[in-house]
Amino acid sequence: MTDIDRDQYQIKTEPYYRPVADEIAMYEAAYAARMPVMLKGPTGCGKSRFVEHMAWRLGKPLITVACNEDMTASDLVGRFLLDINGTKWQDGPLTVAARIGAICYLDEVVEARQDTTVVIHPLTDHRRELPLEKKGELVHAHPDFQLVISYNPGYQSLMKDLKQSTKQRFGGLDFDYPKTEVESEIVAHEGGVDKETAEKLVQIAQRSRNLKGHGLDEGMSTRLLVYAAQLISKGISPQDACQMALVTPLTDDPDMRDTLGAAVNTYF
Ligand SMILES: Nc1ncnc2c1ncn2[C@@H]1O[C@H](COP(=O)(O)OP(=O)(O)O)[C@@H](O)[C@H]1O
Ligand SMILES: [Mg+2]
């Protein structure tokens, strides 16, 4: 692996991240110990942004993999490809990360099947190695390599959960939507609206979050609030912006849409 490979995964400018508790110090200590880390929390609450920020802060390359149920171990580790000269091995993202010393972020790891997830095991204990069985190579992870996974505790069912033998290889950090003041600050910064507008959006979201399990699978995420704010800052009326960014994506149920629409009208 060359420096060019490493350079393309390096984050050049600081990703804005508003700390919520002591997560930066906790993560730094975990990284110093090269401990694998699991970020738990609902969708759109800042997990991916946090990893991007930490990779930048630590000056390490970041390789992100969005996990899905069709993903196989080969998609992570690598495979032989056919070309005119015959077959050629191509490293998967996990292997590249282990070789160049990147932080490898497996986003929504429960989406992957358990037989896929187990390939990370030898990388996440004292061995820090990755066997490429088909190629007949044992990759020893670069000293800077670290594995990070994200996980939405709301989504998992008995069918879809990490095995204990996988879970118990990670330190865990809990994420959630921050308190009003902090979330408003984030929405104002990311969406380009004033604090007052941002706070109204956050209050609407909090109402929807109270409906979780009572007709909604999830409340409105910080991500959606940022979308609403961005539309408002582009000149869309707050009502229309909230409809498009907060209500329509969340539910198809007409009654629930009315309920959410009423919450929007309370504030705008
Ligand atoms: N603490 C935070 N600091 C800065 N931006 C945040 C924070 N939390 C959420 N956001 C905003 O919310 C959006 C969604 O966050 P993201 O990290 O993508 O969520 P997820 O938890 O699903 O990975 C980000 O793009 C960012 O605009
Ligand atoms: Mg994410």
TrEMBL record:
Pfam families: AAA_5, CbbQ_C. The keyword Transcription regulation does not apply. GO terms for molecular function: ATP binding; ATP hydrolysis activity. Residues 36-170 form the ATPase dynein-related AAA domain. This is CbbQ/NirQ/NorQ/GpvN family protein. It comes from Thiohalocapsa marina. Residues 183-266 form the CbbQ/NirQ/NorQ C-terminal domain. Keywords: ATP-binding, Nucleotide-binding. The keyword Nucleotide-binding applies. Belongs to the CbbQ/NirQ/NorQ/GpvN family.
